[in-house]
Amino acid sequence: MTGVRSSTVDGVLTRSARRAPERTALRYADRTWTYRGLDEAVSTAAAVLMDGHGLRPGDRVASYAHNSDAYLITYLACARAGLVHVPVNQNLTGEDLAYILNQSGSSLVLTDPDLAGRVPPGRPVRPLRDAPGSLLAELGTPRAFTSAHEPSADDLVQLLYTSGTTALPKGAMMTHGALVHEYVSAVTALDLRAADRPVHALPLYHSAQMHVFLLPYLAVGAENTIIDAPDAARIFDLVESGRADSLFAPPTVWIGLANHPDFAARDLGGLRKAYYGASVMPVPVLERLRARLPGLAFYNCFGQSEIGPLATVLGPDEHEGRMESCGRPVLFVEARIVDEDGKDVPDGTAGEVVYRSPQLCSGYWDKPDESAEAFRDGWFHSGDLAVRDAQGYFTVVDRVKDVINSGGVLVASRQVEDALYTHPAVAEAAVVGLPDERWIEAVTAVVVLRGEATEAELIAHAREKLAHFKAPKRVVFVDGLPRNASGKILKRELRDRFA
Question: pTM here?
Fold first, then answer.
């Protein structure tokens, strides 16, 4: 009875394959997959994994690889076989890589040949592609897959490791049911349609690209294109050729597109939907993008890995007058703003965002204390500081750990960053608090320039926009900001570097 009522991650693809078997599902490099062909490839990959490596349902399988069609196929194959998929940032090396492989207890690492040498010795490895015996090569001989264990909605399907911007990563335990609920929320909140032609440019190990866009788009039967990285010229080519009309990217990538020398000259009128998230979009940058592409519908997506990761959306018809907002909770998410005691705060007052949702993880893998702390009082505590207005719109102020205590007054780094972005010479900015004998923490701006500006000039510019106690006490100029592959700026690294 349980299997009859369950909805699983791989079932999302199976249903689309039955509705439109010959429709194009996916393009990558020179390969094209129909929905039927993709579904058959998933079954073959599931059989290869289970028969060729002695795996059993519940075993963890790590994917340490670049974007490709093979990456997607093996994620869905793990889901079909009852395995737990562990996506690993392909930029990790050494102790960082070993930590996730060891902490997850991964029995097998699926990887690309150029990354295989980084995997700690003694751990079983299987190449995904471009090598003899690769999993992709096995897909040329279709195989049926049957299993004595049919996954259910309550079974684990993935360990989503947090980005680790403030501490060691934790593996959020995602069930089939949690992710399927999140896919439905994404489809409804983001207006995903079968006629859309999305390009997926961000790393597939990251929850936003995989779970907010690629899988929900497969659910509705869209034609998807995966590319290796968010290369501006490649994206512009796909849009001009009619192969892409929607794109998700973090603000850092949108900033790069807006600053690209070809941005003003290319014909980008075919781009209909622009999704942004993963970190805060500076309002001045959003205004520049909207002025250049007035027909483009912008969606702000906000959340975190533990909730699948979509929690709120600000739709294109909601931006006017509230461009700083991240929108309202999606279909399956209930959210509140609370104080340190867990009590609701009045509208317009900053507090921590807490959630209840079937999209939420089941806790953190092998970390009972951290799980209990995050899920205290019957709500998941996000660590995000936000305000809610009378219409139910949320605006993120900061991460709780990133709020700056300057002279006993709390300063939100985002507000200072937005003020700096209004200066024409500022390409990127990150604001952190650094230890200071007088101020406890001194508001410090770390800035990447695209023009000429001095420290004194930027401080004066910020003071024109902000109360003086919020303006930076110091400005540091750098060539680039440290960030993870999802685009989040690693403020912990900036604090350690400049403290």
Answer: 0.84
